[in-house]
């Protein structure tokens, strides 16, 4: 199953004429295309599906959604080993 997952923008850059961001999904960091949300800024949250930021989201909603997905085991399904490693790293802190 593919999920649209909320993530926080850490960094934005232009790559080959495309606005791209590094996005943190609760410990898993991925590259995301910002062409559908060209005014998204560092620190903001967005719903991301198949590598594209689709909709801006407030921080509280993003955190609640990530917590719920985590509780349901959906993030492990979506991110696999990367999510498990991020979860373990968070436990060690």
Automatic annotation (TrEMBL):
InterPro entries: Hydgase_assmbl_chp_CS, Hydrogenase_HupF/HypC
Pfam family, one: HupF_HypC
SUPFAM superfamilies documented for this protein: HupF/HypC-like
PANTHER family assigned: HYDROGENASE MATURATION FACTOR HYBG
Record-stated family: Belongs to the HupF/HypC family.
UniProt-recorded name of the protein: HypC/HybG/HupF family hydrogenase formation chaperone
Species assigned in the record: Streptantibioticus parmotrematis
């Amino acid at each position: 199953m593919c999920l649209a997952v909320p993530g926080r923008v850490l960094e934005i850059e232009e790559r080959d004429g495309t606005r791209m961001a590094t996005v943190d999904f609760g410990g898993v960091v991925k590259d995301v295309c910002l062409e559908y949300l060209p005014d998204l800024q560092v620190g903001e949250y967005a719903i991301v599906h198949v590598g594209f930021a689709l909709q801006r989201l407030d921080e509280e909603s993003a955190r609640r959604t990530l917590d719920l997905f985590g509780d349901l085991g959906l993030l492990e399904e979506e991110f696999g080993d990367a999510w498990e490693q991020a979860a373990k790293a968070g436990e060690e802190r």
